[in-house]
Amino acid sequence: MARYFFNVADHEFSVRDDSGTECFDQDAALEEALRTLCEVAADQPEKYIHHPLRIEVLDASREAVLACEIKLTAVDRAKNCLKAAA
Q1: What is the reported pTM?
Q2: Which pLDDT belongs to residue 84?
Q3: Phi, psi angles (nearest 5°) of residue 48
């Protein structure tokens, strides 16, 4: 098992992971990052309309090895336009 660090940032805040998480390998770290993005975005989806949420994954030597990002888009089909965040 290796330790990976998951730094999270959006347009309003950033959180540096100082404790890290043990993952079997880099693929497992990617799965953890993607799962975390979905969980965070699910809590306040309107916050991530047009504003990305990003996780940078660092390895045990604190080198960046992965980056994942999620941005939600809402389309009003009746008006054929993008919805703005509330």
Answers
A1: 0.82
A2: 56
A3: -105, 15
